[in-house]
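WARN  no MSA supplied for this record, continuing single-sequence
INFO  ligand: pyridoxal-5'-phosphate
INFO  echoing inputs
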Amino acid sequence: VKSRVYNFSAGPAALPLPVLETIQSELLDWKGVGVSMLELNHRSDHFAEVMEKSERDLRELMGISDDYRVLFLAGGARVQFSLIPMNILGQKNTADYVDTGFWSQVAWKEAEHYCTVNVVASGATDEYRSIPSRSTWRLNSEAAYLHYTANETIGGVEFHSIPEGIEVPLCVDMTSNILAYPVDVSRFGILYAGIAGLTIVIVRKDLLEKATLTTPMAFNYTLQDKHKSILITAPTFAWYVAGLVFDWVKQQGGLSAMALINERKAALIYSVIDRYPDFYRNVIHTSCRSRMNIPFTLPDKILEEKFLKAAEAENFYYLKGHAVSGGIRVTLYNAISEKITMLLAAFMEDFAERFGKISK
Ligand SMILES: Cc1ncc(COP(=O)(O)O)c(C=O)c1O
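INFO  complex generated
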C-alpha cells in the first residue's frame, strides 16, 4: 500500500501486511458467518474457534507443554505487575526482582504494594548500560518468585540467556521480545507479554490456586483458567489479531527462522552505529545489547531533530526515543523486514556521511 510508512514504533507497533490484509478482508464478514469479529460474542462457537487455534498455534510456536496454562487476559503488561504478586505470593510475603531499567523498576515498585521486594541486583551502578552479572545477585531463598524483564524496551538492554541457578519460580516479562527467538518455556514459572489491551500469561500449573481472596475475579489466574480466559467479556479483537500474528509467524518458519532474521537485522543497525561511534552513540555493553529496540543519541539535539526529519522524508517514522530517555530508538520487531532494515541502515550511513564530519 503506497501511503503506508515504515513504522518503527515500539508499541503499539507494526503488524505484518498479510495480517492487516486478512483483518481487512474479514472485517465485515468473518469467514462467511455474516458478522464482524468486532461484533462476535466471546462465548460463541465462532470465537471458540479463534481461541482454540490461537492457543494451539502459540503452544506449537513456543513449545509450551501441558504443564502450563495459557491465559489471554484484558489489560496490558503493567496490569501483570500487580497480578503476579496477587496470584503467586500465596503464603509468602517476599519476592526477588532484578533491576535492569525502566520497566523492571515499574514492575518492582508496583510489587511493593503487595510484598517485600528484594532487589537482587541493580544496573543502576552502571547507569543501566549492562545487566548485573548473575554472580552478584543476592537471592532470597524465601522469595515466592524471581522477576526479570527480558528486554528493556526503553533502555535497550536485553538478557541473551535465561538466568541460571534460580531455585524459586522464574517470572519473566517478555513484552517486547516474545516470539522473536525460541525460548525454553519449561525454565519459567510465568512468562508474560502485553500487547495493546491484552496480555498473554503462560503460567505453570502448580503456581495456580494461590490467589488471595481480594484478587479481582477478572484477574484471578485460577478462575480465569477455569473459564478459558472468558470469565469476563474478553478483548476479542486483540485476541483475534494476536492469533493472526501467530499464524503468520508459523508461516515464516517459526521462531528459529525469526531468530535468524532478527539477529541479522540487529547486527546490521549496530554495525552502522559502530562504524560511526562519534556520531551514533549507543552506550549499552555489547553482551547485552537489545536485538529488538536499539536506542542511540547523536552529538546534539539539533542533529537528532534533523535526523528524524530526514528519516521521515524517506518514509521512516516513529524513530524518536521514548520521552524518558530522549534520543533515537530503532525498533526491529518481527514485522520489520530485513529489507526495510537494510533501507534504514543505508539511510543512517548516508546521514552520518553527510553530517558526521561537520559535527566533529
Ligand atoms: C517490557 C515492558 N513491560 C511492560 C510494559 C507495559 O505494558 P502496557 O503498557 O501494556 O501495560 C511495556 C510497555 O511498553 C514494556 O515494554
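The mean pLDDT is 96.
INFO  checksum written, moving to next record
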